[in-house]
Structures are given as C-alpha cells and as structure tokens.
Amino acid sequence: MTDSAATPAPLTFGWEEWIALPELGLPAISAKVDTGARTSALHASDIEIFGPSSTPMVRFTVHPIPGRDDQAIACSAQVTDRREVTSSNGESELRYVITTPLEVSGQSWPIEITLTNRAGMASRMLLGRQALTDHITIAPTERHLQPVLSYDVYHSKKVRQEAPNRALRIAVLSREDNYSTRRLVEAGAARGHTVEVIDTTRCYMAINALAPEVYYDGQRLPRYDAVVPRIGASITQYGTAVIRQFETIGTYCVNGSAGITASRDKLHAHQVLARHKIGMPMTAFASSPKDTGNLIGLVGGAPLIVKLLESTQGKGVVLAETKKAAESVISAFRGLRANFLVQQFVKEAAGVDVRCLVIGGKVVAAMKRTGAEGDFRSNLHQGGQASVTRISREERDVAVRAARAFGLNMAGVDLLRSSEGPKVLEVNSSPGFEGIEQATGKDLIARLYDEIESHVRPRPVPRRRRD
C-alpha cells in the first residue's frame, strides 16, 4: 500500500489491465481502460439497495470470469451517489455510485465506480478518467503492462479465506417482538448488517420453475444473504413452506425446513434419534386404545410421562405417577383425539435437565435448568431456574450428534443426566437466547453471526474440464 503523503511511483497502463478490488472481494478482474468515460463502471447483476435511508447500502453480484456465470461474487458497499450516465451507444441510465480502493502493482488508491447490469459486455469493468490519476500514463496500443493476475484465484480456497467482511441483508422470520428477535436485530446492526424482521404468516409465494419468489405485503421480497427462522410451533407447517421457498431460491437458511419439521413432531424426532443411535428415554406410541396396557409396559411402567406430539415450553406434558393415573391421562388424550407419546420417567434426573446450545456443529454454551418446587418440568417458561453448568465430553458429543441428525446449524438440545448416561429429551430448532445468555454471560448471538458470515463467503468454483 502506498503512503498517501508520498508521491506514488509512476505507472503505465495499456488499453487493458489486471486489477484488484479487495474490499469487494474481487482479487483479480480484467479491466478495459476507457479514457472517454469519466467514472469507472463495474458490470454487476442483482443490484439492490438496503439499509437505512441516511446511509444506504447496495448489494450486487459480479461474475468476474467471462463466460462463467456459475462463479458469482456477492458484494456490498455504501452508496455515495446516484447519477445519470450516458454510455458509448448514447443510452442514458441512472446508476448507483460507490467508492472502493483499486489495487495495481502493489499500489492502492480510491476510485468511484458506477454499477450497471450489462451482461453482454466482454469486459467486466471499465476504468474511467477519474481512476487514472496523475501518476498514470496510457499506452493505447499496448495491453497488460502491469503484473498479470489470474482467474485461478477463484478456483482456490484463497477467494474464501481472503473475502472481506461485507454488509449482509438478513431476514429474521418471526412473529414476536421478544428478547431473541430484538438481540438478532441489534447485534446484526452493530456488525454493519441490515436485519429485517418478517412476519412469516404475511409471506406468500409464487411457485413456478422459472422464477420462484416470496412476496410480503404486496411486494416481492429482496434477495437476502441469509434467513434466520424463528418459527412458532402453531405455524410450523406454513412456516416451513416459506423456508422451503427461500431454499428453492438459493438463500442460505440457518436451519432448513426438513430439520425444523422433523424436530417439531416429537414422534418423528424420536425416530430420527433412534435411527442415529442417540440415547433417549424409552418411548412408545400407539393409536388403538386396546394397546394402552402394552404401551405402558414398553416404557417400564409408571411413573411415566405422557406428551402431546407438538407440545412446546412444557405445555401438554403430564407426569402419571401410577398405572391408573397413566391410563386416565391416555384415555383423556385419546378422547380429545390428540396425538401423543408415552415416555420413561427418568427419576434420577430429579426435575433437572441440561440445555446445550449448538451452533455450527459446536456446543457454544450450556445451562442447567431446575424445575419449580413440586414441578418435574424444568422449562423456564414454567417457572424453572437456569444456572451455568459444565458438561462432560459425552454430553457434548451427544448434543452435537443430535443437532447434526436433524441437519440443524442452530439447535437447543435438552439432555437428562441418567444413570445410563445422557439422554436427549428434545431438539429445539428455535431456541431462545435470553435464559442461556443471562445464565452464561456469553454473547451467543455473536457466535450465530460468525456462523452466518462464514457461510455466505464465496466458495471456490471448480475448474472446467477441457475436452
């Protein structure tokens, strides 16, 4: 980098040169020198404005390798102006203007760039007069007088490792103004991202092969870099349909629709855990009332737990201390035509469970939850108390395996400490952050944003095989 107070070494440009725009994540791009244009132009697609009106941002996509639309670099920058530009063919266009450093031959200086979607142009960038400072001379009959770069960088891990942190546009699918939602918005803004809360039930979808879209209050939703689902249990079916639509579009979703669907249905969830040989309390399910006695026997008899399949926050969970009480509860649930399962009561857990928060395949925090006096349920929503706890290597391994079994990048895995080792009670795809952040004193939302930012970094594009 050249000291701004020093006189930069003179450079000579031909009519085409290799340059880098490092703050946009473009380490190599071939630019055509155009002294007839005042401002440089970058050929970009999916150009969208986001962020506050006082300091608007623009996100856009660049295909740096000619003819390789499969290599897409997502960029973002602050808008510095919007001006009308007349191209060489006489057409006028209103373009957004950004300012970013240009690097050539070890030197760097800021240039203005207009953004335009001109996919038919062979050169991905034009260098105008404003970028050609006084220390540059032009040799119009020559090309590549400066060091030659290579598109090979886009085929290597370097493009991901050296990608700059950019402002992201993130959607939080939530209907509630609670601690977790507010923290997601505030922490995202503090990192320079724009985080928009979207009411899931107000989304609707255009489902077709060519242009699937998600709409909201009469308008097509923009392209988000990431979606954080906070889907309530009462709208699981519709909420996961909206997430599937985002997945179809190609948006990164922190938790996928399949994992949310499986984890919400307790019968399905326990079948997933069993398939992956993950320890859990003995569980049984039957439809016919004739099987009540056998059902109770399968879990070792009373006392036992009866759970509604879609219960949340400890609601719809009943402890039956005797066989007669169990038969009565099961009969009552069947009378309501409710789907439920019967589960072993782990007495030695003594109303205590452990919530492990898993993000990106790692347990980032754990807390012990103790039920209110006289209540076997430890849920904080039912009056339970939370405190920080240390977990064993086995408990950590079980929590990670459980989240991975559902394909969840973020999950609250609830464990019981039994005499036979840790047993998974539940895998929550929309865990709350308030209790566990307060209990542990950790900034866990930051860990989630670390995971999101790592996922939206560009990935190396495979080389094409030559025939």
Q: Can I get a quick summary?
A:
Helix content is 21%, strand content 33%.
Give a written overview of the molecule.
There is one protein chain. The chain has helices spanning 158-161, 179-190, 236-249, 257-264, 266-275, 292-298, 323-335, 393-405, 434-440, 444-455, and strands at residues 11-13, 16-21, 26-33, 40-43, 45-50, 57-62, 73-86, 92-104, 107-116, 125-127, 136-138, 169-173, 194-198, 203-206, 213-216, 219-220, 226-229, 252-253, 283-284, 304-308, 317-320, 340-344, 352-359, 362-370, 385-388, 410-418, 421-428. It is an alpha+beta fold and 467 residues long. Among the domains are: 11-161, Acid Proteases (Cathepsin D, subunit A, domain 1, Beta Barrel); 169-262, Rossmann fold (3-Layer(aba) Sandwich), CATH 3.40.50.20; 282-345, 2-Layer Sandwich (Dna Ligase, domain 1). The strands form six sheets. The chain has a nine-stranded mixed β-sheet with strand order 2-3-10-4-9-8-7-6-5, with no helix packed on it. It has a five-stranded antiparallel β-sheet with strand order 25-24-23-26-27, sandwiched between helices. β26 and β27 form a beta hairpin. The chain is elongated and about 95 Å long. The protein starts with 10 loop residues before the first strand and ends in a 12-residue tail after the last helix. GO terms for molecular function: ligase activity.
